[in-house]
Amino acid sequence: MKKVQRTLAAALAAMMLMALAGCSKGDVTKEVNSGLSDLKAQAAEPAVEPQTETPAEPKTGAASEPASEPASEPAAEPEPEATAEPAPASAPADNPDYPSAAGLNTPTLEAFGTDFTLVLNVTCPDKGWYKSATSFGDFKLFPTDDPSHIFSGDPRITFELKSGLDKINYYYDDFENVEELTPRTIGGVEMAGRTYKNVGMWWTEYYGEMPTGGWLAIKISGVDIDPGTEGDTVLNSVTFG
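Structure tokens predicted for Lipoprotein:
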């Protein structure tokens, strides 16, 4: 409709301009007829109504509703971590070659190549002391927490019966850094003492002649025998049968 009005206005304006310009009547009539023809043609065209978009209605139902957020629960307090208790110390593995020496031990010592023998009585603490099951006429004690790993250089106390002093001093020339000690009475027998290094180990040795024959040598390596120690208690427990 607006387009028709615009065309009619243009035709009238053209007619007025022509009249003012002195155009002939025929020219004016021609222009008017042309304008009217355009108006008829445009009027014959169906009017196109502008389409108005209908706003979409909001969806109804649970889907259109905003999802409700789950109610927040208070955070649970962390539980205190359980403190692992230390595992109890396992008992040392048994070793048939080195059985426990706890309590009283009564081995019989023998002097090689002679008839000299000596019954030794020695008491060891209830734990941590082991003895050699194999004997060559001597008796060995080992203070250790693991009798399954006893080696030649480990701490020990060795009791040996010899036929004479010359046998005790047989390797004397191989001793290094020999120092004499104050004599010590063991089992009622006064014994001479000395320290030295031999085959890479430091030794404290007490030795003396036994009333029953032969000479006893007590060799200590790696064991504390200061007063009040376990080594000292073991030496003080010695008697002879």
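Helices lie at 2-21, 25-44, 165-168, 230-236.
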